[in-house]
UniProtKB/TrEMBL annotation:
Residues 632-641 have a biased composition (Basic and acidic residues). The chain crosses the membrane at residues 21-42, 48-69, 141-160. Residues 599-641, 653-681, 704-748 are annotated as: Disordered. This is DUF4175 domain-containing protein. The lineage of its organism: Bacteria, Pseudomonadati, Pseudomonadota, Alphaproteobacteria, Rhodospirillales.
Amino acid sequence: MSPLPLADRLRLARLALWGELLAPGVTALWSLLALAAALALLDVAADLPGWLHAAGLAGWLAAIGLVTYRLTRIARPSDAQAARRLEEDSGVGHRPLAALDDCLAGGDAALWQAHLRRMEKQAEGLTPGWPRPVMARHDPLGLRFAALLLLVIAGAGGLADWHDRARRFLLPALDLPGLGPSALEVWITPPAYTGLTAMALRPGMGAIAVPEASGVRAVVAGGWGGASLKAGDAVIAFTNDDGGGQRAEGRITGGAVLAVDQGWRTVAAWPMTVIRDALPSIALVGQPEPDERGRLQLSLDASDDYGIARIWLEIQPMETAAPPLVLPSPLVVPMPLPGDKPRSLSFASRIDLAAHDWAGQTVRLIPKAEDGAGQIGSGEATVVSLPERIFRHPVARALIQWRKEVSEAPRLGPDVAEKLRRLLSDPDAIGGDARVFLTLALTQRLLAAESFDRDDVRDLLWNAAARLDDGGLPAAEKDLEQARRELEQALAANAPPSRLAELVERFEAAMDRYLSALAESGMETESSPDSETIGEDELNEMLDSLRAMAETGNREALRRRLAELSETLSRLGEARPPGKADQRAAEIKAKLRDIARRQQDLLDHSFRKSPSPTSEDEGEDSPAPAKPSAAEARKAAEAQKALRDALAKLNQSLGDHPTTLDDAARSMGEAAKSLDKGDWPVAAEQQSDALRLLGDGARDMADAMESRRAKGKGGVIARDPFGRAQQGSAHRDDGTTKVPGQVETQRAREILDELRRRAGDPRRPDLEIEYLRRLLKQF
């Protein structure tokens, strides 16, 4: 490779000289620029007073100008300096380029020419070098690197909105006469669901914290130029209003600075932190526990930064090894919300899912909460087994079993209808309850049809079973819960005192019905001498306080008292778990019921085989009915004897039992003898007597068991919700029942007079007058 021409090597040497001359000035210039960029990205200008910001910016500009001026005054390297630099970089002992420029003044010309040829040869080997480092001499402390490091640090966190930061750095906020506005108002309005009040901003008030989606409104009066409102990345232009000012409105969704600009300058700016709305949190506390009536007792903790709008439970069935073709939809159970959008709450509640298809199955409970912004938070799923209600009444248990059969296999509807027909043939089996009888009759009619609504049949059978087991308690309890929910909703909606008073009256009426049903349901608890009972005076006092709080509009106190009263009533409704005695009684009743059913079948068979009383009066042309064979009579006699032996065995296992059961066994034996003789009519009469005696014996046995249970354990008397002694199905005074005094009697008389006055007022609605008259009939 041929060496570069001498002219090119001189040019490179000159460039090396230029680099050494310009390096200090250029380094100083980019160090000043890096320092300014770092300060801009760090947004230092936002925290400086306008005059100090302007002074610092002027000093920085002066430094830039001075360095630039010095750079322009640097002299251009000459050709001699470039030649000398090339000779120095090459390290030659002589100066060949200078010798080539010299002229011979006198002497030997041949010797001079030989010297020139030797210098030309040396010049051909000259090599230009790199510029020499000079910054260590000009910047011994290395400040240039400090500026570069500061720029790297600032760029790590300030590049997102670098253009706004650079603008604030280059345009100091100076209040110059005639340029700034004469008035500035900025208001921040948080979302309504936060419950926070509006906030007015003043210039220079410092950093602000703003909820996300807050509204911002700014008004500018006077000043030079159009104004704009900047909230993070959003820029909102002001519009002229009728008063000659400018107005802007928007919504804050993010950003670190809220600023109002007018013309080329920033009128006011506030460092801003946008607070994101957190998701509500909710969790089940502990493991939900079932009670004896099939309800699930659970406790919940929930919280939200601005308040919870509603909470609910989502119930999902567990996956099975063979998943169904169609996945069932989750069951949503709304939960009562104590208070108006509380920020934190801890409460216990009960849910009744005993009538649902999933009762007895393992499910997942997922608590969920929603805040005012519509955000939904979910708690950790809890795996539980939904409780099944324990029915003590044998007929109620049978109804529930038939309900399951219809649910799982609707084709069994006719079979269940036949079972209901047999059950309805003995009204005593359902205690003579007309409502249960009509409900089961309707159910039997629906099942006997070609098609039926599965849900309707399920509801009818469940309601009948629940009424058999609890009397009218389920309906009364449902009405009480509905009245309580309506009152809680009215409190949350800030209803007027008149509405609250009306709902308190409804709640009181529902509570009276519930207590009456509770006292009649036989769900008394076995108390001990030191057990706590709820007195009538205590309940009346709580109700009086509810009415007073409703009339005065004391919502918080009303909410607390309602919660206390609801908890008291829920303790009253806790069912006594069936013990060994209850299970034994249920088994005995079931066996007696089965014997009575089999005896009814035998009686129906005997009636069908007996000759008709009118057959003797019929004409000679009428065909005579076929007479039963002797073999058929013997078969019926054997069935009757087997049933008699079963009853005798049951009587023997009972020990002390009603004598009517022994009489029933004797009637069965006489019926078996009549059947052996083929005397069907006499056998039918004897079987009818046996069936009647079985019913009497079952009732006597039930009364005896109830009387023994009412005595309690250790002589303790069972009591109703008001603490009164209960003996069997009747209430008897054991000396502890409080007799109403003169004050209570006077209060009752006043209420009665008021009812009579309202019933005689013709201006009242006919429906109300009719209700009052029915109410007064018992007085």
